Amino acid sequence: MKSRLTLEKMWWPIVLLSGVAVYVLAMIFSIGQSIWFDEGYSILLAKSSWGDLFALTAVDAHPPLYYALLKVWGSVFGFGEFALRSLSAVLLSGAIIAGLVLLRRMFGAKVALYALPFIIFAPFLIRYGYEVRMYSLALLIGVSATYALITAKASKGWRMWVVYAVLVALGMYTLYMTLVIWLAHFVWLLVGTLKDKKRAPLKTWKWLYAYGLAVLLFAAYVPTFIHQTLYSALPGVGSSITLTKFGDMVSVLFTFTPEWKLGGWLSLLIIAGIILVSVVGVRVYRLLDAKQRQYFLLLVALTLVPIAFYMLTSLPPRTPIFINRYLAHVAIFIYMLVGVVLALGIVHKKNWKGRVKNIPYIAYAAVLVIVGIGMFQLHSTGNFVFERMQYPQTRELRETVTCGDDVTIVADDPYTFIDSAFYFQDCDLRFFSATPIEYKGGYAMLHESLLRVSNSMELSSRTVYRLGWVGKGAEFVVDSRYQLVSSEERDKQLLERYELIVE
User: Fold this and answer.
1) Radius of gyration of the chain from Cα atoms?
2) What average pLDDT does this structure show over 319-333?
3) Rounded to the nearest 5°, which phi and psi values hold at 43?
4) Among 353, 360, 380, 433, whose CB has the most other CB atoms within 10 angstroms?
5) How many helices (H) and strands (E) in the chain?
6) What are the residues whose beta carbons fall under 8 Å from the beta carbon of 71, sequence distance 6 or more?
7) Cross-strand partners of 482
8) pLDDT digits over 67-116, tens only?
């Protein structure tokens, strides 16, 4: 009894300190990580006018809520690198706090605290906890909506169902891929409802009205959503979820190491971890009461339904869309499930007899080691872009350039311009494109831009820099008035300096 009272007394200080710790970790790990294309796009969009912000998101691939929040945040705290990354870190901190509160509601404070290390030291969450993108916001909304869901289901009134509906709509205004969370909720509710034959029809299917309200709240944006879905501006970098990809997914989530980089010992450790967690999971499920079993199955649904969705939507003839970062807003539920399994194994240790009684402790320690390796790998890997196999080094390149009135930097293409814009914002930065930029996709903000250069004859600066890529043929060719005086490479990024030939 005394230990329980102590735990209850210390609960909120521990939870709040965990939130602070996650914020600090995210910001520490962000040190030295260059802003890259996706983040640069977010910043440019947030700096645009309100009218342009909503218009540009309508012709791109993502909804506007995060960009609007980033714009407001930037207007208050500035558009410096620390401030911009802080927004994501603060949102991640809020999501972690909400997640711990959710676990306490589901399984009690002791289980939540045992599971805590697997959540606050989750490398994948930390990585996207400093990304200047919408993933942390979507994560916070998803966890909060899950809490609202189980609260609403346990209540007799409608208030929490309204809250849940609002959160679902906000999620769709943030990231369309939050749909996988709502699908998991839907599956869980449907299965539970079909099993429940005791309640009145209206009460039994009350959750359907909540989804109806959510659709109504999102209705104004449905035409835009349909247009973006049919004419997606996303590049063809996705992959199908095969057995190999599934292994890669597990490895990246827990060790932040892609499958092709795994060594034999690390592979063996991961396999051992999966087996141990599975054994403990099967055992503890049998020990749960009916309500906790339902909550356990909810976490299972939040783990498996998103993966199944990505798998099914990537089957031929559809173009594969899955990228590991599309798990950034649902990964917390995977960490929660693993943490809960191991925590329940320890909490119910009295039910383990003989030689197997130490299995929960062995499993707990093994997964902690795996997560620790993941944090170390995150420190080493940073925001390495696996799709293009390149470590962003734009900040380092910028340090080698002295900008001035007679200096022009030309990005080789629109991608490189957006990728570099944050660090060259105090320079005369242009981009090359032989043809005008169409008003669609991620480059729509460059439509009719006065910064476009169609050939080098338009330039007259004494010094011209070309930003390009190693191994990729130059799209912007500097004419004979200039001579190449230096060239620098930084992990596939290329910076060439040209000086005007003086007769």
Assistant:
1) 25
2) 87
3) -70, -45
4) 360
5) 20, 6
6) 46, 47, 50, 53
7) 500
8) 999 999 999 999 999 999 999 999 999 999 999 999 999 999 999 999 99
CB 333 within 8 A of CB 178: no
- Please state whether beta strands 482-490 and 493-500 pair in parallel, antiparallel, or not at all (unpaired): antiparallel
What is the SS3 string spanning 339-383? Answer: HHHHHHHHHCHHHCCHHHHHHHHHHHHHHHHHHHHHHHHHHHHCC
d(CA 497, CA 503): 19
Strand partners, 469: 493
Q: pLDDT digits over 216-239, tens only? A: 999 999 999 988 877 765 555 567
**Residue 445's beta-bridge partner residues?**
none
Torsion sign, CA atoms 76, 419, 230, 55: positive
The Cα–Cα gap between 210 and 218 comes to 12
Q: Which amino acid is at 87?
A: L
Written as six digits, the tokens of 174 are 């943030």
The helix or strand, by DSSP H or E, that contains position 408, with its residue range, turns out to be strand 407-411
Per the document, the length of the chain is 503
Long-range residue pairs from 6-15, CB within 8 A, at least 24 positions apart, any chain: 7/109, 7/110, 7/113, 8/109, 11/104, 11/109, 14/113, 14/116, 15/97, 15/100, 15/101
Query: How far, in Å, are 98, 255, 379, 469 from residue 35 at the CA level?
Result: 28, 23, 16, 17
d(CA 26, CA 383): 12
Q: pTM surpassing 0.85? A: yes
Which of 329, 360, 265, 402 lies closest to 122, judged by CA? 329
Integer Cα distance of 112 and 110 in angstroms: 5
Gap between the terminal Cα atoms of the chain: 91
- Which of 319, 185, 334, 176 has its CA nearest to residue 249? 334
CA dist 423 and 395 (Å) reads 6
* Token output for 74: 């930037």
Nearest Cα neighbor of 253 from 150, 73, 127 is: 127
Dist. CA 495–CA 361, nearest whole Å: 53
Are the C-beta atoms of residues 407 and 306 closer than 8 Å to each other?
A: no
User: Contact, 459 vs 401, CB < 8 A?
Assistant: no
Q: Give Cβ neighbours of residue 193 (< 8 Å, ≥ 6 apart).
A: 204, 205, 207
Q: Check whether the bond before 436 is cis (ω within 30° of 0).
A: no
Residue tagged 């609260």 (tokens):
151
Query: What does pLDDT average to over the chain?
Result: 90
DSSP-H helix ranges across 155-178: 159-174
Q: Measured between alpha carbons, how far is residue 247 from residues 250, 302, 332 in Å? A: 5, 18, 18
Tokens of 40: 């640069």
